[in-house]
Design a protein that fits this description.
globular
Length: about 425
């Protein structure tokens, strides 16, 4: 496929960095509003359902977003009807899993309905960003696709504050409705609505199933820590951990902005590719650390000021997860490089050891009642291991060939607001 790119990469990179900053600010604002209104217990329940529904929705997409980005048999943008068949499968699979989870947990009908809308919002959001990547619109369009869900959540929260609702099901439903509507409208608006004949969706469905395992393992590693915390610990701990993730999101907003554009231009053409990657790794770690250090050191001040004294137990978790954010930023860039040099089909194998380490770590943490700050170390160990595996594989790779599968974007793969 002939990818179309902005004439100046700097404008796209600058737009992404600015958007990451905007998403960071609005995400933390959303996190603060939810925490202030619902308190640790209510926020814990809110985060739990947001997390599980969003993860189920993105998990069900399999490799569809990646296939759409690299689809070379469809001219121009996709038509809405070309997305209907694959989305019918992904939405159906997500709702089946969600129904099974709900049968076990027996939530209120409003929570179950909100979870369905969270599934839809996350799928629409992921595909909207994929369409922008497909067209090489890594500046305004790509970043607007990422902004739409967060803007919708803030609009919903403003309405909820106006009606003075302090129940987490109402907040879950209000945010989910706004996000589902906004992301659906955005996706429809960016599709090709002209008279071009539709292309069969069969290759899209087949390729998305074939590429799903690698996407699943990547998504599992990115979300496993919060999934484990929501499953194993009481709601207050979930709320404190989510506060740490909000701070870690600031680190990722800076660090991952480089990885996004490293892939969008396929790493560029370098005489010394390993040297160029090494310099990019240092830049990524440096910019992530510049954000992580002040957030970690000043945690007690800004957590108490923004979230309230009830959230002070989150301070040690914040410090640890800020460091994890630096490691995850490096992991993100290295995963993209694996894809660029033709190792995309092996990402699944490369990530399995780290996923096993994280699973074992959370199992030990739950069984031995680790302190909450120690729990936050577990995902850091996983990202460090996968980064090391990626780096060894990249350095041993002799031939350089573009791969056929991009890594799922966390920012585009989740419409839920920052937790």
């Amino acid at each position: 496929m002939n990818r179309r790119t902005y004439p100046t990469l700097l404008s796209g990179r600058s737009a992404t960095l600015l958007t990451n900053g905007g998403l960071l600010v609005t995400g933390i604002l959303s996190s603060i509003l939810v925490s202030r209104v619902l308190g640790p217990n209510g926020r814990g329940h809110y985060v739990t359902w947001q997390t599980w529904a969003a993860t189920i929705g993105i998990f069900a997409l399999g490799g569809l977003p990646q296939v759409l980005v690299l689809d070379d048999w469809t001219p121009g943008r996709h038509k809405p009807r070309e997305l209907l068949a694959p989305m019918a499968l992904t939405v159906g699979a997500a709702l089946a899993v969600l129904a099974g989870l709900s049968a076990f947990l027996r939530p209120d009908w409003i929570v179950f309905t909100a979870a369905i809308l969270v599934v839809l919002a996350n799928q629409f959001s992921a595909l909207g960003a994929s369409e922008a990547q497909r067209m090489g619109r890594m500046g305004i369009e790509f970043n607007l696709a990422r902004i739409v869900p967060q803007a919708a959540s803030l609009l919903a929260m403003g309405g909820l504050l106006a009606v003075d609702s302090g129940a987490y099901p109402a907040w879950l439903m209000g945010v989910a409705v706004c996000q589902a509507v906004a992301t659906a409208l955005w996706l429809w608006y960016r599709c090709d609505r002209g008279r071009r004949p539709s292309v069969s969706a069969r290759p899209t469905v087949a390729d998305s199933v074939r590429l799903a395992p690698g996407s699943w393992v990547t998504l599992l590693q990115y979300r496993f820590d919060l999934l484990a915390v929501t499953a194993l610990f009481r709601p207050e701990i979930v709320a404190f951990y989510a506060t740490g993730l909000a701070a870690s999101g600031a680190v990722l907003a800076a660090g991952q902005s480089r990885g996004m554009h490293w892939f969008s231009r396929q790493g560029g053409t370098f005489t010394d590719r390993h040297g160029a990657l090494g310099r990019e790794l240092w830049r990524t770690a440096g910019i992530a650390l510049a954000v992580a250090a002040p957030l970690a050191l000043g945690g007690r001040l800004w957590v108490a000021g923004a979230y309230g004294s009830a959230f002070l137990p989150a301070v040690p978790i914040v410090a640890v997860l800020c460091g994890v954010g630096v490691i995850q930023s490096v992991d993100y860039l290295l995963a993209h490089e694996c894809l660029i040099v033709g190792l995309g089909s092996r990402v699944l194998l490369f990530r399995l050891p780290s996923v096993a380490v994280v699973a074992a770590g959370f199992g030990l943490a739950s069984a031995q009642h680790w302190p909450t700050a120690a729990i936050a170390v577990v995902p850091g160990a996983g990202y460090a291991l996968s980064s090391a595996v990626f780096l060894v594989a990249i350095r041993s790779r002799r031939s350089v060939a573009p791969s056929a599968l991009p890594v799922p974007e966390p920012a585009a793969a989740g419409a839920a607001p920052s937790r």
